């Protein structure tokens, strides 16, 4: 018998704590070197880490409080109030773990950890009887929602014969779940072979910009405003979907306004921005940061024409273009939302930009953007 006893395991632990050499372990523990080595490895293995718990879930300490409260005869609402939890949370916890008379904190906690393991086997895979009924109804061209509703009425006292229509859809379309045959999908009214569950957002490329470069890949000199020539851009909207493009240089806050005659489609925006950027000296043409607007769908064409790479912010993250957002707010002094930009010329936009670039800015130490840009180019 080559099994290490508990007493020998304790002795090995003591010798390891003393820093004893291997030969001493073999001399004091009369086992094979393989058995001793296995024991040493087991003792040196890191302790199993406690599973991370969501703060939304009950902890073991809270379950202990529930157990004590039940033993003392407290009401569910009283226990919940002491824990700062909803009464429904405590009520479900107690009901799921045997009720008031059988609730035990440790057993309830072990059950919760066991149920938290993922992935779980599909319900239709675990219950052949339920799966057979669902498959037979699908072959009759019943919808999953009809099947789920009929099961509740047809088996009112059999909780095993319950399944939601979302589970049926997932079991049909996600074959890795191994629950329902894929060919049953042809009996669905839609005839589709894919479905998105309600509330699930799947990014499949539809309606998104292609081949974009994320703002995280923008050069460090742009992020820390160390070098001039890195711009932020956006569209400012007026009435009747009229727009003007706003460009702000990150280091100096220098503003350029680009009129968009007629529309703000991707090709119009790309051409207008390229024409404006081409008027700048080379040291001021380093990068452009934009949001996820579809007006920059032709960003590749813009970059080829100007040599300026375009970096895109995260969706709904205007703070990643903070200078541009702040400038757009200042521009509303000149262009309220009732402005029709189609009635203005590029000369009008240049005059407003010149006035704004001549206003001192606190973030620049009360210098004007024109002064800050001149200093940066020296």
Summarize the structure.
The chain has 378 residues and is α/β, with parallel strands linked by helices. The chain has helices at 6-18, 22-28, 33-44, 60-71, 76-83, 87-96, 105-116, 123-126, 128-139, 144-154, 165-173, 220-223, 266-277, 299-306, 322-331, 346-357, 369-377, and strands at residues 213-214, 230-237, 243-249, 255-259, 287-290, 310-312. Helix 4 (60-71) runs antiparallel to helix 5 (76-83), helix 5 packs across helix 6 and helix 10 packs across helix 11 (165-173).
How would you explain this protein's 3D organization?
- It is a single chain.
- A hairpin with a 5-residue loop joins strand 3 (243-249) and strand 4.
- The mean pLDDT is 86.
- The longest helix has 13 residues, at 6-18.
- The chain is extended and about 90 Å long.
- The chain folds into four domains: 6-44; 60-116; 123-187, no CATH class; 213-377, Nucleotidyltransferase, domain 5 (2-Layer Sandwich).
- With 378 residues, the protein is of the alpha/beta class.
- Strands 1-6-5-2-3-4 form a six-stranded mixed beta sheet, sandwiched between helices.
- The chain is built from 17 helices and six strands.
- Helices cover 44% and strands 8% of the residues.
């Amino acid at each position: 018998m080559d099994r290490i006893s508990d007493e020998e395991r304790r002795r090995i632990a003591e010798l390891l704590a003393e820093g004893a050499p291997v030969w001493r372990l073999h001399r004091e523990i009369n086992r094979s070197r393989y058995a001793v080595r296995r024991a040493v490895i087991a003792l040196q293995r890191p302790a199993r880490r406690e599973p991370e718990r969501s703060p939304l879930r009950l902890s073991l300490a809270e379950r202990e409080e529930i157990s004590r409260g039940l033993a003392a005869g407290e009401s569910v609402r009283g226990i919940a109030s002491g824990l700062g939890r909803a009464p429904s949370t405590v009520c479900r916890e107690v009901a799921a773990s045997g009720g008031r008379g059988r609730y035990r904190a440790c057993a309830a906690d072990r059950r919760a950890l066991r149920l938290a393991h993922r992935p779980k086997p599909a319900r239709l895979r675990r219950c052949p009887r339920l799966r057979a009924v669902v498959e037979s109804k699908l072959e009759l061209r019943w919808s999953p929602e009809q099947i789920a509703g009929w099961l509740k009425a047809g088996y009112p006292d059999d909780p095993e014969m319950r399944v939601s229509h979302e589970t049926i859809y997932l079991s049909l379309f996600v074959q890795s779940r191994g629950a329902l045959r894929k060919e049953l999908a042809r009996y669905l009214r839609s005839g589709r072979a894919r479905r998105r569950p309600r509330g699930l957002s799947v990014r499949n490329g539809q309606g998104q910009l292609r081949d974009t470069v994320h703002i995280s890949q923008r050069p460090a000199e742009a992020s820390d405003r160390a070098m001039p020539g890195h711009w932020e851009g956006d569209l400012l909207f007026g009435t009747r979907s009229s727009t003007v493009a706003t460009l702000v240089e990150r280091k100096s806050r220098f503003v350029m306004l680009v009129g968009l005659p007629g529309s703000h489609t991707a090709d119009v925006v790309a051409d207008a921005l390229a024409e404006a950027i081409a008027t700048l000296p080379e040291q001021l043409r380093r990068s452009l940061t934009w949001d996820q607007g579809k007006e920059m769908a032709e960003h590749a064409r813009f970059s080829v024409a100007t040599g300026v790479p375009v970096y895109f912010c995260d969706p709904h993250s205007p703070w990643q273009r903070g200078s541009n957002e702040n400038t757009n707010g200042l521009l509303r002094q000149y262009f309220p939302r009732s402005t029709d930009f189609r009635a203005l010329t590029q000369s009008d936009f240049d005059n407003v930009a010149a006035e704004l670039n001549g206003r001192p800015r606190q973030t620049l130490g009360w210098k004007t953007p024109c002064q800050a840009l001149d200093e940066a180019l020296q």
